[in-house]
Amino acid sequence: xxxxxxxxxxxxxxxxxxxxxxxxxxxxxxxxxxxxxxxxxxxxxxxxxxxxxxxxxxxxxxxxxxxxxxxxxxxxxxxxxxxxxxxxxxxxxxxxxxxxxxxxxxxxxxxxxxxxxxxxxxxxxxxxxxxxxxxxxxxxxxxxxxxxxxxxxxxxxxxxxxxxxxxxxxxxxxxxxxxxxxxxxxxxxxxxxxxx
Length: 196
Description:
Order of helices and strands: EEHEEEHEEEEEEEEEEE
Radius of gyration: 22 Å
Structural class: mainly beta
Number of helices: 2
């Protein structure tokens, strides 16, 4: 007859019963929910789930792992990013970055939710900007192997290998997997290298 979602009651129509579905909109990203289904006052089952993280708001740019136009590759887009750009990578997509220097300002690399995080293989290095805001990597699988293929014999050294002076507000890796690098994810090579 009805269900509750975190204690809030929603009626189930005859059509919804016949279809076996009930759609509820407006859920909050990254939130745990409990659903209890009822027939009258009798509890018929309980399900718990969590919503996926929502794509950050701002200047969102969806990035294909295999764009037809090379100017739309992740590497090119990142190298030419404007402050505030949010690059959304396809879940399960495989991306390669050789060596790039990020532009001044803030940038986010966000992996779309799904069964498999997007894989990013940095064959060279990412250089931080001389004056950066927030540099954020979220829900990304960084692999030392090309395309995350562990049968490859060549491993990469670093994600960030900073040789020049830089100052960034924050450098964030959130819900990322970092695996199979020869060395460490981040290397600062100079005593006057960075302020974070």
